[in-house]
Fold this sequence. Notes:
The protein has helices at about 10-45, 50-90, 105-110, 120-130, 155-170, 180-230. With about 230 residues, it is mainly alpha-helical. It has one domain.
Amino acid sequence: MKTPEYAGLSTRVKWVLGVIAVSVLVAVVGIVYDVLQLLIVLDVANGMQISVEEADSFDAIMGNIGALQLLLWVIRVIVFLTWKYGAFRNLASFHVHALKYSAGEAVGAYFIPILGYYRPLQVMREMWKASDPTNLETEESAGLAWMRSSCPSIVIWWWIVFAVDSVFGWALLLGVDAEELDALVVLSWALLFSDVLTLVSFALTCCVVYKVSNMQSEKHAMMQSQVVME
């Protein structure tokens, strides 16, 4: 059976990093308005009066920011899963055997209830280890040398922050219509925390995508060098 060819990930990486860069800018703007909203709510709680027009205007701005963030979230999901699918497919070109998962599962697991809370981490750990260039496959290794590689804690932290941020974001949708003052204070703090957590998630995602892609590129180059030498 012919071994699948390695496919460079540079274009997919650029898309992921580019969309995240735009998302960071929008998230920073969101944080600024989160702080302003929190200050306004706290002032109102202390007796300050604001007009209905001012409140409606501010709500409209927050709504537009939220809509833009939702649009960017959809685009991020598409470009990230496109990258992950391509990266996992590359593993076959490294002659690795005994993989537990497939490229389809690397993407599909996100959309399956319950499974989506732990399988993506398992897939990413396997992909990281199989992408590690320090353990190249040989005739003697029988395609199992990759199992000697380790997976750093940044992958675990990437998933923890990503999962918490996702759950927290969906939970916030239940409180967007809060009208009681105390509830608005809590919601304002929650929105601020969510946007800050999202920035952390962006940073970790960039690190994981960049590192896995670089490892695969290096591993492919090393394998090509071995072929030339032989």
